[in-house]
Amino acid sequence: MAKTYQEKFGYPAERTKGKVRPYMAEWIQDFIRHAPFCVMATSNASGDCDASPKGGKPGFVKILNDKQLFLPDVAGNKLFHGYGNLESNPKVGLIFLIPGHDNTVRINGRVKVVDRGDLKDVRLEVFNADEKAEVLQGLLIDVDESYSHCPRALKFSKLWDTELIAKNIVAPPLPPKEPGI
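Structure (tokenized):
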């Protein structure tokens, strides 16, 4: 019988295990209120995955209480990969980032798609909107677990290194977008 990953590599410290909670602690809520960016991960019933960037003015993801979030869906490329996945598997994972801040916050939960007509009581705003920006619908997320994540990956990647950012602005390592699109 194959060993589990914990059996092979060890178990987390009690302090680390204690970070994972079935609700959003106040620190987690504050982080989300200040985050202008998150990535939403979904998979369908067959396990096909999608990770979709979401962004806006800090606070664009609304905290309804310590167990619920509302994530607006702003018009984009209209591929709807994540929303298609949610039709057969209503589970979602979110990772929130704040530029220059090495910690992240992770949320896992279950979603319900909320139509635009049902959004009367939620104040929605699109930050730095273009002519195509409008809120189409949204996700009501019931939080199953939340936790902060250590800064190692962001430090290893030098994601917030201002010298590297400046270098990439002056001499982009890749063209601005895929040719022909």
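Residues 21-170 form a domain with the Pnp Oxidase; Chain A fold (CATH 2.30.110.10). The CA atoms of residues 52 and 80 lie 9 Å apart.
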